[in-house]
Write the structure tokens for this entry.
Amino acid sequence: MSWNHALPAALLLMAPFDLLASLAMDIYLPVVPAMPGILNTSPGIVQLTLSLYMAVLGLGQMVFGPVSDRIGRRRVLLCGAALFAATSFLLAGTTDALLFVALRLLQAVGASAALVATFATVRDVYAERPESAVIYSLFSSMLAFVPALGPIVGALLSKHFGWRAIFLTLGVLGTMALLQAFPKWQETRPQHGTARRAAFRPILRSTAFWTYTLGFSAAMGAFFVFFSTAPRVLMGQAGFSELRFSLAFATAALAMIVTTRFAKRFVAAWGLEGSLARGMALLLLGALLLLAGHVLAPPSFGTFVVPMWVIATGIVFTVSVTANGALQAFGDVAGTAVALYFCIQSLIVGVLGTLAVVLLDGDTAWPLVGYAALMALVTLTALKFLRGQQRRPSTRIQPDGPHTP
């Protein structure tokens, strides 16, 4: 393995691939209502360009994770980035509905490949180093800004340059990331892992993998539910303007970025399990504050956004350690483990998060209260079981002690 980049240089190298996968979804949202007319098709077909993109982005990692374990991270990343950039340019040049849907699928395939190769590389290089907490938490903090700023950027590009400018921008950004990575991204796949077959069963049987993956799902799902309900609560119920809403929403992302500055310090002090436990405790505290605000006062910045700052802090505590905790035992099949980690998280967030918004009245704080509290309790229960499992071998040895000569 050869990876000689200082942390700031490594972040500049890897961050674009983490951001572009999400940006391709959010920057496109402002023009979705106009796309049926542009493509001369139905709104249902246009909806496929959103839902299928998300599905392929998650499920594609189940393919590219094992592939990256076999042929290496570098080749998967470069091919994925090239496909993402090429399809982005082609999307800007077509108005055929079926071709547009097909290109969006290929764009998601490229984004999925680049994303899984990026996180497998982080696992390869930084798994045993304190910098991993900084990388994971910073990635999550940057992603928090994408849903807030992506639609604004897309709306401005569309207004001043037309809808094609959105996909041209994605193509240019993808090309720049590819050109930066081509000479600098060294292969990091462990050499002793080349002969191992991708095996899902050992990963799925790991209590640690499930515990930390549940924690990751709790954290990212809480932000997903906040993102899904905040416009309805703050603009629909509290009467915020679009600008005031955007600024209020951004404060939650800012809370995550500020907390990220201390990630390395608290992970070193608390360890993986301690950081996860504290992250879940903050999700529970935030849910209780949201519940109190909902019961005692009308929707406002203080009753909805301020409790989200507490949850946002817990999100950073959590995501700083969940990848290492889930993947630390699977170094030579990190690509496969990363794929499962993200795929399971996507399924949990997509299913439970959507159900929370639909069933618990998305115009209120109830979806966020319900999701954050439920997933935090489930994760803490799994963490308790993991700790008990880790202590069990030592308790088994004790009875044999007196019989030892």
Notes: The radius of gyration is 22 Å. Confidence is low (pLDDT under 50) at residues 395-405.
